[in-house]
Design a protein that fits this description.
Blueprint lengths: L15 H5 L12 H6 L13 H14 L3 H14 L1 H10 L1 H8 L3 H7 L1 H4 L6 E4 L6 H5 L9 E5 L16 H14 L6 E7 L5 H4 L14 H18 L4 E4 L4 H11 L5 E3 H21 L8 E4 L3 H16 L4 H6 L1 E5 L2 E2 L24 H8 L3 E4 L9 H10 L4 E4 L11 H7 L5 E4 L6 E2 L5 E2 L2 E2 L6 H11 L6 H14 L2 H5 L10 H18 L11 H8 L6
Parallel strand pairs: 1-3, 2-3, 2-4, 4-5, 6-7, 6-9, 9-10, 10-11, 11-14
Antiparallel strand pairs: 7-8, 12-13
Helix pairs in contact: 4-5, 4-7, 5-6, 5-10, 10-20, 14-15, 14-21, 17-18, 20-23, 21-23, 23-24
């Protein structure tokens, strides 16, 4: 039979070596015989026409041969720069193996080494030197379809601190997860690095550092740069969703307050972390048989994550019938100076709602003994803080203690899964911020701990926002996302200690979250499209399929 002709191609469509160098269109050895003739590829590729399955097998063979996570990260980054569809096919079909490489924990090391492993530009760098022309800079981005921006200024990368322009690895990684986990088309994803300098002296002294070599911009000059960026983003990409990522506490809260009612934006460290944590708590309560309103929560850390988690826990307790003031009284925080209490005087604004009347307590173990929490949540990036004494005390006062060690990367975890289970005699309900392998205790009990990873939440939320053209992002959307995620966790998952569903099913989880969040947007008048007759079908139709 004769080959079906290719549909008419636009004049801009690349051919020959230009096509092979375009990762958004390149299929490599999978271009058909007909495509090779029409697109000027004859002779530029090996003779065999490969299937994508064959290409996938080759990638996996070479990936699994590598010995270090960083070398695997570099390999996957190179694949992304060469063939986006194949990259996303690999990640989509092997999430448990690939996601710890393209995101936490390996992405932290990749950011630290960013200038040393740099291969090819990806994303948009907007620097303090671009004041007055940021819109012009943003118009250099090749894809006019951009609908989701993940932006960082690199000041608080994971638990690693100020990494300056090296922080670009985070927006790149996050947007890869948008596509892999929720099917947001790669052309709709725009990573942005706001390079305002760095106060990291080791980076400034590194001859291979690629960012501005100056101290961080602060005050009015910083605010004016962010304002210009926000205005430019909406001018160049009307309605684009902006996700703030890894901003330091002193900027994160106020930027979210400033812009959340002006543009469609959210902060994943505040709201996404809160949503995935509340989902884990809801799963835990299915095991304990208790109600949300009867819990007492103690956060190790009092920054973005702890505040966002506490705010959403309060919302969940209110839904369970508890008065807001009483709900806040059930949420406590410990920072570097001890228990956050009202008598401490000068506290950051975001801590004040959770600064309750109480005698001073200087350490976390003391706070556990004094408050008798049902759940401890580690988001302070202080490794080992959930000591044996802490976990044993939690197990003494709770039949099933809830222990969430959510700091990442792995080096920052408050305790490991093995420690939590051993020190609690296997009774802990455990979640982590970085992956831990399944394990078997000495008595033969088997556990499969899973990550309280934001990748369960933000991809589905973002997909919904883009599909319905949402004008704003609300806390109700994140609480709905939490409840949807918890509902995806099966009884079989809970029986093996898993408080979240397997990552292998994350695309379906994201689709269900997208539907639930879209319903909130329609209910609250925040969508710019009419509600379709079949919202589930619309969500699945909009999800990018990486297969050729």
């Amino acid at each position: 039979m004769p080959k079906r002709p290719l549909p008419p191609l636009p004049e801009w469509f690349p051919r020959g070596t230009s096509l092979l160098r375009d990762p958004t269109l390149n299929k490599g050895t999978a271009f058909s015989e007909h495509e090779r003739d029409v697109l000027g590829l004859r002779g530029l590729l090996p003779t065999h026409v490969a299937t994508q399955d064959e290409q996938l097998a080759r990638v996996l063979e070479n990936f699994r041969r590598l010995q270090t996570p960083l070398s695997k990260y570099i390999m996957l980054s190179s694949l992304l720069d060469r063939n986006e569809a194949l990259f996303f096919r690999v990640v989509t079909e092997h999430p448990d193996e690939m996601m710890p490489i393209i995101y936490t924990p390996t992405v932290g090391l990749a950011c630290q080494q960013f200038g040393h492993i740099y291969r090819r530009p990806r994303g948009l760098f907007v620097s303090a030197a671009d004041r007055g022309r940021i819109a012009q800079v943003m118009r250099n981005w090749p894809h006019r379809e951009a609908a989701m921006i993940v932006v960082t200024d690199g000041e608080r990368i994971l638990g690693l601190g100020d990494l300056g322009a090296n922080g670009m690895g985070i927006p790149i990684g996050k947007l890869s997860l948008y596509t892999a986990c929720a099917g947001l088309h790669p052309w709709k994803c725009l990573p942005v690095m706001l390079d305002v300098g760095t106060n990291n002296q080791a980076l400034l002294a590194d001859p291979l550092y690629l960012g501005l070599r100056q101290a961080r911009l602060t005050g009015a000059a910083y605010d004016e740069l962010v304002e210009e960026f926000i205005v430019a983003s909406q001018e160049v990409f009307p309605g684009v969703v902006v996700q703030f990522e890894d901003f330091a506490n002193h900027n994160a809260f106020r930027l979210l307050r400033r812009y959340r009612d002006r543009v469609c934006c959210f902060n994943d460290d505040i709201q996404g972390t809160a949503s995935v944590t509340v989902a884990g708590i809801l799963s835990s309560l299915r095991v304990t048989g208790q109600r949300m309103r009867d819990q007492t929560f103690l956060c190790l850390g009092a920054g973005e994550a702890a505040t966002g988690i506490s705010d959403l826990l309060v919302a969940a307790m209110r839904e369970d019938g508890l008065d807001e003031a009483l709900a806040r009284r059930r949420c406590w925080m410990v920072d570097s100076k001890g228990l956050v209490i009202a008598s401490r005087g000068e506290l950051a604004e975001h801590k004040r709602p959770y600064a309750h009347e109480h005698a001073p307590v200087v350490d976390f173990l003391g706070a556990v003994r004094a408050l008798k929490p049902t759940a401890i949540i580690g988001v302070g990036a202080v490794p080992g803080t959930f000591s044996e004494a802490v976990v044993r005390e939690m197990a003494r006062i709770n039949e099933r203690p809830i222990v969430f060690a959510l700091s990442n990367p792995t080096s920052k975890a408050e305790c490991t899964a093995l420690q939590a289970y051993e020190w609690s005699e296997g009774r802990a309900l455990y979640a982590s911020g970085s992956p831990f392998d399944p394990l078997t205790l000495a008595d033969g009990r088997h556990f499969v701990p899973r990550q309280g990873n934001n990748s369960y939440i933000f991809p589905g939320v973002g997909l919904a926002l883009v599909i319905v053209g949402a004008t704003r992002v609300t806390d109700a959307m994140f609480l709905t996302a939490a409840r949807t995620l918890a509902a995806c966790t099966t009884e079989a998952d809970l029986a093996q200690g898993s408080l979240y569903p397997p990552l292998a099913g994350v695309r379906e989880v994201s689709a269900r979250i997208a539907v639930a969040v879209a319903e909130i947007a329609f209910r609250d008048g925040l969508a710019q499209i009419d509600r379709p007759e079949d919202l589930v079908e619309l969500v699945h139709h909009e999800m990018y399929d990486p297969r050729y």
